[in-house]
Amino acid sequence: MIHLSLIGIGTGNPKHLTLEAVEAIRTQDLILIPNKGAGKDDLAGLRRQICANLLVDTPHAPRIVEFDLPVRDPATADYRRRVDDWHDAIAEIWQAAITAHLPTGGRVGFLVWGDPSLYDSTMRIAQRLRPRLAMELQVIPGITSIQALTAAHGVPLNRIGAPVQITTGRQLRDKGWPEGCETLVVMLDGDCAFQTLPDPAALTIHWSAYAGMANEINISGPVPEVSAQILETRAQARAAHGWIMDIYLLNRTSPA
């Protein structure tokens, strides 16, 4: 039997780990760490550092195994099909690593950036293993980038009694502002879709890059006043680090 633990590790700050996450990391037999390739090894490096810090005095420390994360095939036009094929490829790599290092079963952990439930496909990939392995699945929640964003700016997520919608840059760009909502959290936005919205003077943005990390960057204000600053800062940060994770909260002014 394989016991697979998906462990939320927060947004890049080792202090964000919960006590449950710490205990889970220390009790694994195997920990899998994805490597996204040149320019993005900060993400694997953080996972390695978390393990090194937590396992220094552990009598039976888990084996740490890294694997190269496959690249999505850009030739597949259908986005959903492209993602599904990518997840299938990752599941095959997981299965190969687990059976190679735990041939008789055991506990394997995967450290998930942020929380496994929020715009992360680790649980979907894990479900692909169920027909292939005798497996029990445990999911341990972690601090999300949304929590780190609102904490960094000192703002509440919602207005009093009002809903909040969490969406992606692709959805905002293609479908515009959703009806009946005055507050949006936008993730996975490589093109800064807030630039495409009508009536930007009615919008306030709270933007964070590397939320929760030591190199966190925060900019906020009316969209027309800070849009250019966000674009320039984002480009500079991506060039300096080779990758960027950013997120923002948009509030629309209520009608008079």
Quick overview:
This is Precorrin-6A synthase [deacetylating]. This protein is α/β, with parallel strands linked by helices.
Detailed description of the structure:
One of its GO terms (molecular function) is precorrin-6A synthase (deacetylating) activity. The chain is an alpha/beta fold and 256 residues long. It has 2 domains: 2-140, Cobalt-precorrin-4 Transmethylase, domain 1 (3-Layer(aba) Sandwich); 145-252, Methyltransferase, Cobalt-precorrin-4 Transmethylase, Domain 2 (2-Layer Sandwich), CATH 3.30.950.10. The protein has helices at residues 19-26, 41-55, 79-101, 122-128, 145-153, 169-175, 223-241; strands spanning 2-8, 30-35, 63-68, 106-112, 135-140, 165-168, 183-187, 203-209, 217-222, 246-252. It has a 5-stranded parallel sheet with strand order 3-2-4-1-5, sandwiched between helices. Strands 6-7-10-8-9 form a 5-stranded mixed sheet, with helices on both faces. A hairpin with a 7-residue loop joins strand 8 (203-209) and strand 9.
